[in-house]
Amino acid sequence: MKKINRAITPKQKHVLDFITEYTKLNGYAPSLVEIGNKLNLAISTVHQHVMALKTKGYLKKENNQPRGMSLLETTPETAEIPLLGTIAAGAPIEPIEKPEPIKVPKTLVSKHGNFYALKVQGDSMIEDGIWDGDIVIVKHQQTADNGDTVVAITENGATLKRYRDQNGKIYLEPRNSRLANIYPKSLEIRGKFVGLLRTTI
After folding, report:
1. Choosing from 56, 124, 139, 192, which is the catalytic residue?
2. Among 27, 50, 63, 137, which lies 20 to 30 A Cα-Cα from 185?
3. How many CB atoms lie within 10 A of CB 147?
């Protein structure tokens, strides 16, 4: 399972886009004050976004320098996929079908197939390292192998669980020893989990 910390939230993307355009136009990066004025953000919020972009490998920030930031030449290549909403890693809930673009490293998606992202709600997959608030990357497909982690639609809604086929008996397995398996009356596979993003902002 791939785990990285390079997700770009929409707000971080706005900050990065402004820094990129400003740097191209002026030959140097904007100050935190200029970013805040342009994007109508508090300086403390700008600082959080800049530090997050530094941590994720998009910016180099020199401490105690008013314009001491620059774009890294090794900015990770990204692809844009839709963030469709929230998926339960607990009791099944309905997903929020309102696509919002999110940038993810190209290493998480291949040229073949369709991919989308969902934000995890709940703790039923913590033993697989999938935590409440994580963003899971999903490859759209309608089939699954035994043991795959899938986005499944049951009679109770959408959920993220391990797919199990035990001698033809299909069930969904949470990865939290406190929770019981789910034996759905109806089941539709909507995709296979391929990786996750963990954001702090």
Report:
1. 124
2. 137
3. 10
